[in-house]
Each structure stands twice: as C-alpha cells, then as structure tokens.
Amino acid sequence: MTIWLIAALVVAVVGLPAAIYRVATGTGPQRLVGLQFAGVAGLMIVIALALAVGQSSYLIVAVVLALLSATGLLVFTRLLAVDAHDAGDQPESDHG
User: Fold this and answer.
1) Cβ(59)–Cβ(44) below 8 Å
2) Could you tell me if 10 and 45 are in contact, meaning their C-beta atoms sit under 8 angstroms apart?
3) Residue 20 contacts by C-beta under 8 Å, 6 or more apart in sequence?
C-alpha cells in the first residue's frame, strides 16, 4: 500500500463523513460550506488515487471536478442570496 492510497483512504474516512454531516444538517450557508468541503475532499481523493496508480491522465478528472465545484459555489451563493432577499420582503402583520 503506497502513501497515496493511505492518504486517499484517510481523506475518505475522515473528510467525507464530516462534509456529509454538514450538508445534511445546518442552515443554508452551513450546507454550502459542507458542499464545498465535500468537493475539496473528493478532489483530494481523486488526486491521491491518480498518483497512487501512476496515471497522470486521471488528473483531468480532478481539474474538471475543481471547475464544477467553483461553478457550483457561484450558483448556490446566488440562490442563497435570492432566498435571503425574499425572506426580508415578507409583509408584517398588524396586530393592533
């Protein structure tokens, strides 16, 4: 077992469950942080596995994952901003 396989296993066992927990619980921004953490953990796993098997061509998967993760962050941030803006537009009820 190479050091890269051990690194991928450690990240998969420690990092991914923590990220999944954060995505499953918490507020919208906390879930977004968990999603980004899961993307980073997945990226590290892919890079470690590519280095472990000695196939540098597998690193293109890591590049695509990084680009999609960054794009997803922008999309979800935009959606969270719209939700926060809409929550402030609630009409106040008159109790008087």
Assistant:
1) no
2) no
3) 34, 38
**Could you tell me the two tokens for 12?**
């998969």
How many domains are there within the chain? Answer: 1
> Which domain does 8 fall in, by range?
3-86
pTM, whole model, 2 decimals? 0.73
Instruction: State the CATH number of the domain containing residue 55.
Output: 1.10.287
Is residue 93 included in any domain, yes or no?
no
Give the C-alpha separation, 14 to 21, whole Å: 11
pLDDT digits (tens, 9 = 90+) for 37-71: 888 888 888 888 888 888 888 899 989 988 988 88
Rounded CA separation 64/70 (Å) = 10
- Residue type for position 41: A
Q: Does residue 23 sit within a domain?
A: yes
